[in-house]
Amino acid sequence: MRFKWAACYVWGIVAVTMTASPSLGKEQIFSIGKDYPVVKPGDVSSDEPVKNVVYMIGDGMGFSHIFTAWVANKGKLNLDGFPVAGMARTWCADKVITDSAAAGTALACGSKTKKGMVGLSPSGERLDSLIVHAADMGKSTGMVVTCDVTDATPASFFAHVPKRTMAWDIASFLPASRIDFLVAGGLSKLQKRPDGRDILGEMKKEGYSIALDRAELEASTGGRLCAILAPGHLAHPGERGDVMSKAVKKGLDVLARNKKGFFMVVEGSKIDKAAHKNDLGLMMEEIFDFDRTIGVVLQWASSHPGTLVVVTADHNTGGLTLLGGDKEKGEVICHFSSGEHNEAAAPVFAFGAGAEKFTGIYENTDIQKKILEAMKHDSARKESRKKACHQKHLGEVGLEKQAVPLAQITGFFTALYFRVDLFVEYCTIL
Ligand SMILES: [Zn+2]
Fold it and tell me: Do both 282 and 387 map to the same domain?
């Protein structure tokens, strides 16, 4: 009997060690072979009003991951092209070490919440994400991620559930999500569901065209699009190729057709997953794929003034340390000290219109607030310009004296009725 217990105990230790990570704490070497070129971004003004926003999240990608990738790509990354950098504290409402659900909710909705909660406050109230705010302003919206669409980070932008594991429930929020251009994985949660709902069918009714592989995605020409490219997460970079950067480029071109601009969120979703596994080679490939996508966005933003690009992470994963390497050869020697997330501040990089707001040290929730403020400021400017034109027109036709006070009174009460924040803005304009 005693022998049995001892055997169980020994096996328990072995099993925990095996599932935690086969390479935890061991030195790992990665060598890039052929490095990739990086973009030289244009000299764009930070003072332009913010019309378009591209919000890019490297899941689990901390400063050490970025510096390691910089050495491995022989001393360069597209991230070098960002003129503004800051850092964000990632703690969540009930833990000092966050997860992708609470951190995703902070980045999407601007509120700290409890670990595991998606799009809800700690007491369970629904929170609006930047997708909803942008759509309310008349902007188009997009999402490109390399994971299952029900994964915690993308889910934080459209779903509201108390537990991140409620994948069926998360998927059921998609048809009413207000995302105009969606590229992700996760087909298995949209069809043959326990509740019998056909999410793709419902999305068709909402005006989406559906793409189920890369060829169908590339053939799409505009309108609302839902491209679901895998049953779960997308494959590793070696297999999926440049689908992320191509999808993002397509999204930028399609969404920019809206004169009011757009908001798009992009996630390098699987950096975190490779770091949890302590797989250095795979993690490097995921970071490079994300950085190449950043290059595509930088190039686009350089020729489209009024575009704000923000790159950040939800948290750090794996306790990565660079022990040494060779920048000329593109070789790095690293080890992971854990298979989990840690406390280290998340990097924030900003480029283009409104970028200067992102310098300093702040909370992860402030990133959402800064983006929202920048988008609102632009909308408010346009409104007041429209109002000025309207008043000028009324003056020209001799109606100014009667019409303006009436318009002001109506606008005043409309703003008061619908939105307190618009009401405040209205008073400022008045
Ligand atoms: Zn993680």
Answer: no
